[in-house]
């Protein structure tokens, strides 16, 4: 449970930083503009949805498309991650707030930045959490 919460917080911070870096990706809060608590809760909810989508659908796509990963030397992963980010934006659009992505290529760039930031934050927090791989 502790690992899940730490991973959720890492993804939330990485998503927040991604929205600051990539202009085509933003998070729309469910509360009024300027309400920090509503924005943080929205980030946590979007990170939770992203974790579910990436864990369930992403792994299924990676298993099915394994020959394409080998054929393209892993470059198809950029497109798959961009599509997964667009799927999260679509799901959050269904609930009325959350992640918005302008185009597919903004989604690909956002997925790359999000992946790099969550990896970097995870490495920085590894000594604090105490779990090594």
Task: Write up what this structure looks like.
This protein has one domain. With 133 residues, it is mainly α. Keywords: Membrane, Transmembrane, Transmembrane helix. InterPro entries: Phage_holin_4_2. It holds the Pfam family Phage_holin_4_2.
Briefly, what is this?
With 133 residues, the protein is mainly alpha-helical. It has five helices and two strands; from the N terminus they run αβαααβα.
Fraction of helical residues: over 70%
Sketch the major β-sheet: 2 strands, antiparallel
How many domains in all? 1
- Radius of gyration, Cα only, in angstroms? 15 Å
Write the H/E string, N to C. Answer: HEHHHEH
Structural class label: mainly alpha
* Helix segment tally: 5
Q: What share of residues are in beta strands?
A: 5-15%
**Oligomeric grouping of the chains:** single chain
The unreliable regions are none
CA-CA gap between termini: 17 Å
Task: State mean pLDDT (0 to 100 scale).
Answer: 90
Search tags:
133 residues, mainly alpha, two-stranded antiparallel ribbon, 5 helices, globular
Compile the SSE list and pairings:
Blueprint: H1 2-21, E1 25-28, H2 36-64, H3 66-71, H4 76-95, E2 98-101, H5 104-129
Antiparallel strand pairs: 1-2
Transmembrane segments: 12-31, 37-61, 68-92, 104-125
Keywords: Membrane, Transmembrane, Transmembrane helix
Protein name: Phage holin family protein
């Amino acid at each position: 449970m502790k690992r899940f919460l730490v991973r959720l917080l890492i993804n939330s911070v990485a998503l927040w930083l991604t929205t600051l870096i990539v202009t085509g990706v933003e998070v729309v809060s469910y509360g009024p503009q300027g309400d920090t608590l509503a924005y943080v809760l929205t980030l946590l909810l979007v990170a939770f949805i992203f974790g579910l989508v990436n864990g369930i659908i992403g792994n299924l796509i990676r298993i099915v498309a394994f020959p394409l990963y080998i054929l393209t030397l892993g470059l198809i992963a950029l497109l798959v991650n961009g599509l997964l980010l667009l799927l999260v934006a679509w799901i959050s659009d269904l609930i009325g707030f959350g992640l918005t992505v302008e185009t597919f290529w903004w989604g690909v760039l956002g997925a790359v930045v999000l992946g790099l930031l969550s990896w970097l934050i995870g490495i920085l927090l590894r000594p604090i959490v105490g779990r090594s791989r």
